[in-house]
Amino acid sequence: MATPYALDTVFAALADPTRRAILSMLLEDDMAVTDVAEPFEMSLAAISKHLMILTRAGLISQEKRGRVKWCKLEPDALRDASVWMQGFGQFEPVNLEAFERFLERELGGDSG
Amino acid sequence: MATPYALDTVFAALADPTRRAILSMLLEDDMAVTDVAEPFEMSLAAISKHLMILTRAGLISQEKRGRVKWCKLEPDALRDASVWMQGFGQFEPVNLEAFERFLERELGGDSG
DNA sequence: GCGACATTCAACCGTCTGGTTGATCTTTTC
DNA sequence: GAAAAGATCAACCAGACGGTTGAATGTCGC
Prior knowledge:
2 copies of one chain form a homodimer. Chain A is of the alpha+beta class. Chain A contains 6 helices and 3 strands. In chain A, strands 1-3-2 form a 3-stranded antiparallel sheet. In chain A, strand 2 and strand 3 (68-73) form a beta hairpin. The A-B interface holds A 7-8, 11-12, 14-17, 20, 23, 27, 73, 75-76, 78-91, 93-96, 98-100, 102-103, 106 and B 7-8, 11-12, 14-17, 20, 23, 27, 73, 75-76, 78-91, 93-96, 98-100, 102-103, 106.
C-alpha cells in the first residue's frame, strides 16, 4: 500500500538537527533509547519526545523487548518526500559522496 | 558555491502545506504576491509571511519591480535536502509520474 | 497630489515545539 | 521482594508558528 504518511509530519520531523542526527545514527544499526540519547547533551525525556515525533512520522519504528525499547530506521517513509523534492529539482541521481559529507558536517565530524 | 542553506530551514519551510502549494504554483511561472495569495482562504499578510519563510530558506527569491514583488522558484535550495534524503533511502531515480500524482493530491485536483 | 493598488509592519492570539524536572511504571537482577 | 535500570508521563516554561486585523509604506495613474 502506498505510504499515507503526511508530508507535513515527515518534513517537520526532518527540520530538527537532533532528529536528523538520530536518523543518521540509526543508519548504522538499531539502537535502544538510552544509547540513542547518550551522545546528546539533553535529558532522556527530550530524546524520548524526539523519537516519538520520528515514530509518528513513520521514519522509525520502536519495538519493546523487555525493558528495552529498540529503535529502527524506516527509510520508506522518506520516499514520498524524496519524490516530492526531486519533482522540483530534477537533480542529479543519488550522490552518496555528497551525502557522506553531509553526515560528517551534521555530526560535527569536521574536527579531524 | 555549494548552498549553505541550513537543512533546518528548508525542511521547516517544506513542512507546511500552504508553502508546498505555493512552491507548486511557482513551478509553472513566476508570480506576484497578490496572485500567489488568490487561491488561498487566508489574508495577504499570512501569505506574505509564508513567502518570507520560503525566501529565508532559499526556496524562492523575491524581486520588486515597481509596486509588484515577483516570486520565483529557486529549486537549487532543495538539492542539499534531496541529497540528504536520498542518502537514506537510495530510492528509485526521479519519478515524475509519482510527483504529478502528489501535486494533484496536494492541490486538491481530485474534484474534477 | 490624491486615490487606489501592492505589500509589509505591528500587535495580538491560541497552539505547538523543544527543553526541563520529578514522579511513575515495568522489567531485570540479586 | 526491594533496588536499580529503561523509558515514559505530567506539569511547566520560553519561544516560535500560523493566523488575524488595522495601520503604514511605497508606487502607479490620472
